[in-house]
Design brief:
The complex is a heterodimer of chains A (about 250) and B (about 450).
Chain A: E1 16-25, E2 28-38, E3 43-47, H1 54-62, E4 69-74, E5 77-78, E6 88-91, H2 103-113, H3 118-128, H4 143-156, E7 161-165, H5 173-188, E8 192-197, H6 200-206, E9 209-214, E10 217-222, H7 224-231, H8 238-245
Parallel strand pairs in A: 3-8, 3-9, 6-7, 7-8
Antiparallel strand pairs in A: 1-2, 1-4, 4-5, 9-10
Helix pairs in contact in A: 2-4, 3-4, 7-8
Chain B: H1 15-27, H2 29-60, H3 64-67, H4 72-90, H5 92-106, H6 108-112, H7 119-137, H8 139-150, H9 157-184, H10 188-209, H11 214-221, H12 228-232, E1 235-237, H13 238-258, H14 265-287, E2 292-294, H15 305-312, E3 318-322, H16 329-345, E4 349-353, E5 372-376, E6 379-383, H17 388-399, H18 424-444, H19 450-453
Parallel strand pairs in B: 3-4
Antiparallel strand pairs in B: 1-2, 3-5, 5-6
Classes of the chains: A alpha/beta (about 250), B mainly alpha (about 450).
Chain lengths: ~250, ~450
């Protein structure tokens, strides 16, 4: 099973580099010349209010939406939209897949597709805490458990880069911390996470680097410390920084 | 691209995808509701057909000549399966659309298209699930065959299998059409409207323009329901089967083009055009295939075997010029009794419909109206008959061969049966629906995770 390479083996070129990505809906630019990179093992947060263009950005990066301009580079080479699913796996928000099937059947489907062993599948189930609802049908899952199911599906996918839209939506504080631990653990093994988050507290807690998006444009990017320096707010919270930059 | 760092789509096994599609289509209510509706519908049609067949048989038992015309294919199978055809036309699109429509509506499609399968593989797996659904839906129809046998009825294996095959081809056409409509529409409701517009539109074509001349006749041939006709007449037409396979292939190819979300419609249209051209070319090639097998036990679509053998040896072109209006019933008779049989038997037959100067209903100022001219080699003759008994000797005369002596025996005996199928009502209105409900419950029961975690 090809898994993400470890951070120690990465070259100087970031695995994922997005340049000047633009997507229009009619005359409106949903995202406008967005550029960013993600290194192996990075947890990158795309931060912005509702309507900032976070979902559009993720869907354009993975090739589910066509971009007007811009490129996605994989280890420095252009990655056409049709081939992006071999490197990137995207977990959309608001999806309740295969509602009539039991949770374990959906997991079993993904595990079968990606030839995951029983041990790997069981590990994933344990890590996201799905064990109590395995026999429950997807339509009967709570919002939180549905989110855990989606997360498990993404973790079963062997792709080196996972993009997730609002991965903490539906979780309480304790659950969020649990899932942050899972993501951190995977990132430590070299997987890259790009998370679209509108809760700034969550973003501050998990992300190594942040991309502040408003009106479809990148208003700031970097680690929290870099953003503090950029805004001259040495003790500023992400909220303060966001307000200063947008 | 650094291939070791990506996931290769070639490594994905097909079985999990197929199993998922089968679970999806069987877990929905649409299939089981259709099955429950089919039980009384098919059961009642069967009861009526057996009753009418029994009445005809009562008279035929007194007269062997009447018995010759009693074929279970016409008397029981075609009318019984006719109700299955209606259900497949009106209800099956809802079952097939679910295979794709629900994933679109729940957003699961955005996960599905990221899996390491080509769009064509995804759509083919869905078509396989649709085929499985059709097989399940055909259970009430298949059970009528068993009941018919239990009543003592006769079934000819070849013509029965051919008829079932025809229904399978029609079911796959409707299924592929439903998948295509689900791939182009955003919601299941819109998909259903598109699919039903085509299936019901086919009926309209049949009722309104069939039998009309020119362009309208060409339109009538596009009707989906025309697919079943030859099978119902005991014909296995290679061209028709190939043509239907081409249309199914085309619909699946187009569905694969329209499946991925995020591709602009204009781009999908551009990608569809080559497929449309390819399918058009395949259809025109399929139309050239003249291989047709008469599988009817009574050989209604063929001349007597001695004539068949002799006609097949006449290698020169036979040119037939018909001076009849296309809507003239004599033309239909001539076609059914003579022309189509000649086309299937002789290697080189060309039929031309000469422009009739006066319609058959408007009186005839043209003396030649109603004449049919036969030209074989350098000789020609004219006849007004629509009967093979007169026309075959005429052709033999033109070819300079003696008519074959009739082969004794081998005549279709007919299968009269006076039977009542009232008891079968308990099966179609009670037993079978109960079994279906039990199966539905078994499939819907809470699944066990024991094996999964073992």
């Amino acid at each position: 099973m090809p898994l993400a390479e470890s951070p120690t083996s990465e070259s100087s070129v970031p695995p994922l580099h997005v340049t000047d990505l633009t997507k229009r809906y009619g005359k409106e630019r949903a995202i406008d010349c967005v550029t960013f990179s993600a290194a192996a093992g990075d947890v990158v947060g795309i931060i912005g209010p509702n309507g900032a263009g976070k979902t559009t950005l993720l869907e354009t990066v993975v090739g589910l939406l066509p971009a007007e301009t811009g490129e996605v580079l994989w280890h420095g080479e252009p990655l056409p939209a049709s081939q992006r699913r071999s490197a990137l796996f995207y977990l959309p928000d608001g999806v309740r897949p295969y509602r009539d099937e039991a949770t374990f059947q959906v997991l079993s489907f993904f595990a079968g597709v990606y030839r995951r062993s029983r041990a790997e599948t069981a590990d994933t189930i344990m890590s996201v805490g799905l064990r109590p609802v395995l026999d429950r049908r997807v339509h009967a899952l709570s919002k939180g458990y549905n989110r855990r199911l989606l997360l498990a599906l993404a973790l079963l996918a062997p792709h080196p880069v996972l993009l997730m839209d609002e991965p903490f939506d539906g979780f309480d504080l304790r659950q969020t911390r649990e899932i942050v631990g899972v993501i951190r653990n995977q990132a430590a093994r070299g997987r890259t996470f790009i998370l679209a988050i509108h809760q700034l507290v969550d973003a501050e807690r998990i992300c190594d680097r942040l991309i502040l998006l408003a009106g479809g444009r990148v208003r700031g990017a970097g680690t929290l410390d870099e953003l503090r320096a950029q805004t001259s707010l040495p003790a500023g919270s992400l909220e303060d920084i966001f307000l200063a930059l947008t | 691209m650094h291939s070791p760092k990506t996931y290769s789509r070639q490594t994905a096994p097909l079985w999990p995808l197929l199993a998922k599609e089968l679970r999806e289509i069987t877990s929905g209510q649409a299939l089981w509701t259709m099955l429950l509706l089919l039980c009384p519908l098919i059961g009642y049609s069967f009861l009526q057909a057996v009753s009418l067949y029994g009445e005809s048989s009562s008279a035929a038992l007194q007269s062997p000549v009447l018995a010759n015309s009693l074929s279970p294919l016409d008397g029981v199978l075609v009318p019984t399966l006719g109700s299955f055809y209606v259900a497949v036309t009106l209800l099956f699109p809802f079952v097939a659309i679910r295979a794709l429509g629900q994933e679109k509506e729940t957003g699961a499609l955005r996960l599905l298209v990221q899996l390491p399968y080509r769009p064509s593989t995804l759509v083919s797996a869905k078509l396989a699930a649709v085929l499985a659904a059709w097989i399940l839906a055909s259970i009430p129809a298949l059970s009528t065959l068993i009941v018919w046998r239990m009543l003592g009825g006769h079934l000819a294996a070849a013509e029965t299998a051919n008829l079932l095959f025809g229904h399978l081809v029609y079911g796959l056409l409707v299924g592929a059409l439903a998948l295509f409509s689900a791939s182009i529409a955003e919601s299941a409701a819109t998909s259903a409207i598109i699919a039903l517009a085509v299936t019901i539109g086919s009926w309209v074509l049949d009722f309104t323009v069939a039998g009309n001349p020119g362009l309208l006749s060409w339109f009538a041939q596009l009707s989906l329901s025309q697919t079943l006709r030859p099978f119902e007449q005991g014909l296995l037409s290679g061209g028709l089967v190939l043509g239907a396979a081409c249309v199914i292939f085309g619909l699946i190819a187009l569905s694969a083009v329209w499946l991925p979300p995020g591709v602009p419609p204009l781009s999908k249209l551009r990608r569809s055009l080559p497929w449309l051209v390819i399918v058009a070319l395949m259809l025109s090639a399929a139309a050239q295939v003249r291989l047709t097998v008469d599988v009817a036990e009574d050989r209604r679509n063929s001349f007597p075997s001695a004539d068949q053998k002799l006609l097949a040896t006449l290698r020169l072109p036979l040119l037939v010029t018909v001076r009849l209006a296309p809507e003239d019933p004599r033309y239909a008779d001539l076609q059914r009794n003579v022309l189509t049989k000649l086309e299937r038997t002789m290697p080189n037959v060309s039929v031309t419909l000469a422009k009739a100067r006066q319609g058959f209903s408007g009186g005839s100022s043209d003396e030649s109206y109603g004449e049919v001219e036969y030209v074989y080699g350098t000789r020609s003759d004219i006849s007004r008959s629509t009967s093979p008994r007169e026309i075959l000797p005429l052709i033999y005369g033109l070819a300079g061969v003696s008519p074959p002596s009739p082969t004794p025996g081998g005549e279709y005996p007919g299968y009269p049966l006076v039977a009542r199928a009232d008891a079968a009502l308990f099966w179609f209105f009670g037993g079978l629906p109960l079994l279906i409900v039990l199966c539905w419950w078994w499939i819907r029961r809470p699944p066990s995770v024991d094996n999964f975690l073992a």
